[in-house]
Write a structure and sequence with these properties.
Elements (H helix, E strand, L loop, with lengths): L7 H11 L15 E10 L25 H10 L4 E10 L3 E4 L7 E8 L4 E7 L16 E9 L4 E5 L9 E6 L13 E14 L5 E14 L4 E3 L2 H4 L9 E6 L4 E7 L5 E9 L15 E6 L4 E2 L1 E6 L1 E2 L2 E2 L1
Antiparallel strand pairs: 1-2, 1-8, 2-3, 3-4, 4-5, 5-6, 6-7, 7-8, 9-10, 9-16, 9-17, 10-11, 11-12, 12-13, 13-14, 14-15, 15-17, 18-19
C-alpha cells in the first residue's frame, strides 16, 4: 500500500479541509463574552396567540416595564406585536450582565452561560421596573434566550427557546469602545441596509404590516449632520442618497433621524459597534459600524450601517 505524502503548506491545507473539526470554533466559557455590547431585539411578525407576559406573578397581575432599553426589550418580547429596540449592556466575563438606567451605577440585569461548543444561554430581568406593592422583586419581568457566540465573541445571535418562541430575536455586537465616543466618531460615508415594518389596522379591523425598506448612503463630516457628497449629486440613483442628523453620547449610544429622498423622516436609536474580524479593514484604523433600531410609533425593525472603503482609503 502506498503512503499519501502531503508536502509543505499544501499538505497542511488539505489536511485541514479533510478534518473539519480542526477548524471548528471552540469557546472556553463565560470569559469569551466580556465587555460592553450593543443589543438589538425585534419581532417583525404578529404572534398568532399572545405570548404569556414574562412578568406575570401568578395572580394575573403583570409587573410594569421600565422605560429603559432593557425594559423596552422585555416589554416587546412579552407582547404579540412587532417591535424593535436597541440598547447597551455589559458582560463581566463571569456570567453576569449589567446595565444602567441613565446613571453611572450599573445594576445586574441578567446572567449568561457559554458552553465549550460556543452555544450560549441568556436570561434578562427588568431590574428597573417598579413592582406593585407587596410583589417580591424576584418576580420582575424576565425572558430567556439561547443561541450561538460568533466571531470570537464579537457577535452573538439569540432567539427564545421553542417552548417560549414568539418570533422575537436578539442580536449582540461588541461596542466600538467603552467610552469617549463623540459625533466625530461617525465621520465618513456609511452604507445602510434595513427592512422596517409599519404596523396598522385596516377598515375591517385586521392587523397588517407594510414593508418600509431603508437602503442607501449616509455621509457625515463628524459634525452631527448627514448629507450628500458630490459623488451622490451625480449618481443615477439619487433616491439612495440619504440625509439627516445624529447625536452621539460618550458611551457610544446615540439617536439619529434619517431623511429619505422623498422627504420621509425615520427616527432611530443606535449603538456604535466594532467591525467583524472578517471585515475588510484599513491598516491601523478600526472602522466603526452602527447597529440601529427605529423608534417611530408603529415602526419596527433594525439594521446596520458600515463605512464604505475604496482602494484610496476611506471616503
Amino acid at each position: 500500500m502506498k503512503k499519501l505524502i502531503l508536502p509543505g503548506i499544501a499538505g497542511a491545507l488539505l489536511l485541514a479541509l479533510l478534518s473539519p473539526q480542526l477548524n471548528a470554533q471552540v469557546c472556553f466559557g463565560n470569559s469569551d463574552v466580556v465587555g460592553p455590547y450593543a443589543f438589538a431585539g425585534s419581532r417583525s411578525v404578529f404572534v398568532p396567540v399572545p405570548a404569556t407576559p414574562p412578568g406575570t406573578n401568578g395572580t394575573g397581575t403583570t409587573n410594569p416595564f421600565s422605560s429603559t432599553p432593557v425594559g423596552n426589550l422585555l416589554s416587546g418580547v412579552s407582547s404579540a406585536l412587532p417591535f424593535s429596540t436597541v440598547g447597551r449592556i455589559y458582560a463581566d466575563g463571569n456570567g453576569h450582565l449589567l446595565a444602567s438606567a441613565g446613571t453611572l451605577t450599573n445594576a445586574q440585569i441578567g446572567t449568561y452561560s457559554v458552553s465549550t461548543d460556543c452555544t450560549i444561554s441568556v436570561t434578562l430581568i427588568d431590574k428597573f421596573a417598579t413592582a406593585p406593592a407587596g410583589t417580591p422583586a424576584s418576580t420582575s419581568a424576565s425572558a430567556t434566550f439561547d443561541g450561538i457566540v460568533l466571531d470570537r465573541g464579537n457577535q452573538i445571535e439569540l432567539l427564545q427557546p421553542a417552548a417560549a418562541a414568539n418570533g422575537a430575536v436578539l442580536s449582540l455586537r461588541r461596542v466600538y469602545q467603552n467610552s469617549g465616543c463623540t459625533n466625530a466618531t461617525l465621520g465618513g460615508t456609511f452604507g445602510i441596509a434595513t427592512q422596517a415594518f409599519l404596523t396598522g389596522t385596516d377598515t375591517t379591523g385586521t392587523s397588517s404590516l407594510t414593508l418600509l425598506p431603508v437602503t442607501g448612503r449616509l455621509t457625515s463630516s463628524g459634525n452631527g449632520l448627514f448629507g450628500v457628497k458630490a459623488t451622490g449629486d451625480t449618481s443615477p440613483l439619487k433616491g439612495r442618497q440619504l440625509a439627516g442628523t445624529y447625536t452621539v453620547n460618550s458611551d457610544c449610544t446615540g439617536t439619529m433621524q434619517i431623511v429619505t429622498a422623498d422627504g420621509v423622516t425615520r427616527n432611530a436609536s443606535f449603538v456604535i459597534t466594532r467591525p467583524s474580524s472578517g471585515a475588510c479593514q484599513v491598516p491601523g484604523f478600526a472602522r466603526p459600524e452602527i447597529l440601529f433600531g427605529f423608534t417611530d410609533p408603529g415602526v419596527s425593525g433594525f439594521g446596520s450601517a458600515r463605512l464604505e472603503t475604496f482602494a484610496s482609503g476611506l471616503q
